[in-house]
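N-acetylglucosamine kinase
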Amino acid sequence: MASKGSGLFLGVDGGGTKTTLLVGDGEGRIVSIVGGSSSNLKSRPWDEVRAELSRLVREGLERAGRPIADIAGIALGLAGGDRPEDKKRVAEHLAAELAPGVRIDVFNDAATALMAGTQGAKGMVLISGTGSICCGFDPESGRYVRSGGWGYLLGDEGSGFDLGRQALTAVLKAHDGREEATALTGLILERFGAAHPEGLITSVYEADNPRTTIAAIAPLVLAAARAGDLTASRIADGAAAALAALVVPVAASLRAGEETLPLIVTGGVFRDEGLRSRFGNRPELRGIGLELLSLKVLPVAGSYYMALMRAGIALSPDIINRVSQHCATEGEFSDETIR
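Structure:
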């Protein structure tokens, strides 16, 4: 197997909708980035997840023009990947496909997204995409703190799935006469090509992945909220409140004295300006010393950083600069401090 200096390090960021794999060397030079579908261990069959991970590794190496023997380490940030049994099956699957001795580390995708934003410094990340979670890290103690991230059946408050599910429920209740009429009805019917609310049942329940199908409705909800629809506005306000509720206990656990804590916000839901504003203005966030920051690089950069660090490679300014240049993404949130 190649040495650390000449070997390749792979980072994987796997969420409820998509997965990204990055291939780089030990000095921060990125040689390929490839994308695929969901690798959430709790919302997609394991056979499909492992097949997708294997495919991404092969494609990433093919694009880089390098053999599998050159892999020196791989770190994966996977939604639903917190539990030891899940980490074990991912690691065992990849170990069977890679050269002997390759280091394989599996984390929750929130931990690697936080690493992408802070490079290991103290801070928090709040993700609202298909699912939602808040994670904080204190490098002095090595302690991670999390809130939420319990999946679409037991949590994911304020997520794209949560927004979409509430919107569908509101449309069906309005159809029954149990709630007021809403512009969401026309928007969602058009989205699914349905002539009547009853047609939504087939569209949702017979979808290949109902979770991502429902989450895809979130932009319609947020657009209707910006346009002033009362039902959509109520749902958006509830999402902002739910996301703020994830942040408060993590901040309380991490904060010492009067320090200001960076809070990195990322995920598809936060691309909506109206939702960002609703979240930033939540009263419960006032007075707890938060600096809201946009994630300036792709979340997969954090997994790559983890792979390097686990191999004993320090994140030098040169490495961070190279990764930032290659993996830059448009800021999702205007940086500001909540007083």
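The chain has three domains: 8-118+297-329, 125-153+239-294, 160-228.
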